[in-house]
Design brief:
The complex is a heterodimer. In chain A, 70% of the residues lie in helices and 7% in strands. Chain A has twelve helices and three strands, in the order E-E-E-H-H-H-H-H-H-H-H-H-H-H-H. Chain A is extended and about 85 Å long. The relative contact order of chain A is 0.07. In chain B, the strands form two sheets. A seven-stranded mixed sheet of chain B has the order 8-7-6-9-10-12-11, with helices on both faces. Classes of the chains: A mainly alpha, B alpha/beta. Chains A and B meet through strand 1 and helix 3 of A and helix 3 and strand 8 of B.
Chain lengths: 269, 223
Amino acid sequence: MKGEYKVWFGSVYLRNSEVEVVKSDNLVESFIESRCVKLPFSLKNVALKVFPSEDEYYSELRKTALMVAERKVEDELKSSDRYVISLLKALDELDLGINLFSEKIRDLEEIRTGDEIEEFRRIVRELRKLRKEIEGKVNSEAAKLMPNVTELVGGVIAARLLERAGSLKRLANMAASTIQILGAEKSLFKAMSRMKKGKKAKTPKHGIIFQHPHIRTLPKSLRGKMARFLASKLAIAARIDFYSGELKEEIVEAVRKKYEELKAVTEGR
Amino acid sequence: MKLEILEEVTTNVFLAKYGEKEFLATKSKFKSHYGEKKYVGLREWIPYRSKLAAMIMNGYRLDLKPDMKVLYLGAASGTTVSHLSDVLERGMIYAVEYSARPFKKLLELAVERRNIVPLLKDASKPEEYAGIVERVDLIYQDIAQKNQREIFVKNADFFLEEGGEGLIMVKARSIDSVADPSEVFRRFLSELEEDVPIIGYGKLDPFHRDHIFVHVSDSERLK
């Protein structure tokens, strides 16, 4: 067996049956850079060639892991909001592009067929593929950043709420009623200005969260009720996500139950 | 009122009684980590918060030895890890969690304890920690992901010591959100069995609805 393995404490070289270990002089760096296939040797046995004892090995390992973790966790917390938002924007722009090209193809087809159409089609196919990948990424990153909100409404809607709010911190500080109409500000302010003038007006029932099947599939008369309930749970979910980050199953259960209740009302009629 | 020990479930894990209250606990000199109560030398282990505690409460026994090495996938904020850390006095827990926010809490725990190596990594990419984690006696997985079976098998291939064991917590809804849970579990078990021998499994109700645990052993087929 031959090969070089970048382990956390340096490099391990295998030559036939010889094992050579070079300890890194910067353990934090080698820890961060370490990436390996499945090791064909015992990591700890090899380590004991360069560490005086098992205790010493574990204490160095732990110290290094803690230092790296502390650094990484702060970086992640600072950038993950923006990452999800920029992924969502990329997704929206891809949609725009796909629509634009698809329209072009239709226009061209009406006139004549030709090579350039095939080229456009190829591009659209590629864009669709990319779109799928980005959508998967939005879902997984949203689940990582806000597991409870994502569990309730899915990655894309969760990301859209985040985009509107600006950050998870701001979303977590929002009242349920604000979350309920997030994305329907225009309609809200229109209604408010009408009211100011003493005219009759209806405030919107829902904004972004309307896209959620639990609301969309209910009859108009019940959508407000569902939207209010979902928004109240979203507000709680966002707070758990911001302050603890652990998944709480009960919230999703409650929303599903409410939906089924309301659904039963419509079917009972 | 006085504290009464009813049973030593496994090393450092006790079924205890205080007044009318019966509870599971680990022997611990550390402070409370997630809001659990402390009794003289014992830390309450809440089955509603920890699936491992739920498994024990439901009567399943796992032999935990104080010098075990554990790879823990999906450590979250360290609720269960904190109790494992109590139990494995002379062991080591490699705690993998990919989400930064709960990881921060886990980090507090790892600073306080001496037997936790915290890793902010994705459990589906063992290559990223193959140069850090040694061979272990137990792989514990609680990641609630659709492809958790593949992730477990991959990690077992990388890290499970010969004769080692695995414990997998499965949530029906994260594998298939619409199918009947018992059907989901049946499928999961039969697919898992192709890769690793199953020693035992059981429900985590009423503590965690529609969840099961699966206890597996290391397999020659992996090697």
